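Private note to self, pasted from the team thread so I don't lose it. Backbone tokens:
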């Protein structure tokens, strides 16, 4: 089945901006024209593609077709550059699943090194980001090491080092007698979201037991650091984020010298890999600046 490029661009624009009016503004047509294009596309595939609302969102079929449209855009941009068909081809859009901590520590540096590309980032836990690739909803992903996705090129990025950190007052209050299974079971910890297993993984590595301490849910990398400094709880923070606070005494390690290293990989769909060569190179270079070598 061949798709009309004008219909595909209308679908992608609606999903990007959340409304028919905004899509019409981007494409310099009327909202009526956008509606006609979507109706024609829905008639062609025999399924609803847009969930009308404020904002509009895509149905599973609509999201999959929009992903296909963006992949075509990447490949066309690559071909345009290779054949020098235009001196300044339009920017291609790429959708990537990244971890919040990668975004907070090094991924923006990679983005800044790539020209001619617009980024649509999906934030998810490293243990789950590979699933976005398997579903075909992203073109590339940062995932935990070992979770290779079939049909993708995989590159090791090294390990992001996490340290168990808390404020000095928090440690004096909750760990005065030491960091033990008993004290860990009572001291409030910080958890990014229900998918976040870093704290429990570190606890089990140190104690050999599974413990479920009282927890604050705080879905923000910088919020994790700020909450730890404020004495709200303890949490596993990327070393690169908390190094200044450790040096000036605002934070301390619960157990010095006991980090948790999480190996990360960069995975990109094999068909799109040539079109994303510059991005892959930038990602590997940026990660190398802060990652520790994976064992």
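Design output:
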């Amino acid at each position: 089945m061949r798709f009309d490029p004008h219909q595909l661009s209308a679908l992608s624009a609606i999903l990007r901006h959340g409304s028919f009016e905004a899509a019409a503004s981007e494409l310099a047509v009327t909202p009526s024209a956008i509606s006609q294009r979507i109706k024609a596309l829905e008639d062609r595939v025999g399924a609803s593609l847009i969930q009308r609302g404020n904002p509009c969102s895509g149905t599973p079929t609509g999201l999959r077709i929009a992903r296909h449209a963006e992949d075509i855009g990447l490949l066309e941009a690559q071909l345009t550059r290779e054949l020098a068909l235009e001196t300044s081809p339009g920017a291609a859009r790429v959708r990537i699943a990244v971890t919040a901590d990668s975004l907070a520590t090094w991924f923006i540096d990679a983005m800044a090194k790539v020209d001619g590309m617009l980024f649509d980032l999906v934030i998810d836990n490293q243990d789950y980001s590979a699933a976005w690739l398997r579903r075909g909803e992203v073109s590339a992903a940062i995932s935990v090491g070992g979770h290779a996705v079939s049909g993708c090129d995989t590159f090791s990025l090294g390990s992001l080092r996490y340290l168990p950190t808390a404020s000095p007052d928090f440690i004096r209050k909750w760990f005065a007698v030491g960091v033990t299974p008993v004290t860990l079971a009572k001291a409030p910890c910080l958890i990014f979201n229900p998918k976040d297993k870093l704290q429990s993984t570190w606890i089990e590595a140190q104690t050999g037991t599974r413990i479920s301490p009282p927890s604050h849910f705080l879905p923000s990398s910088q919020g994790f650091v700020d909450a730890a400094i404020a004495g709200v709880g303890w949490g596993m923070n990327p070393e690169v984020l908390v190094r200044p606070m450790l040096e000036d005494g605002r934070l301390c390690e619960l157990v010095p010298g006991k980090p948790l290293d999480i190996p990360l990989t960069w995975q990109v769909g094999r068909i799109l890999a040539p079109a994303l060569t510059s991005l892959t190179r930038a990602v590997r270079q940026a990660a190398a600046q802060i990652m520790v070598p994976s064992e």
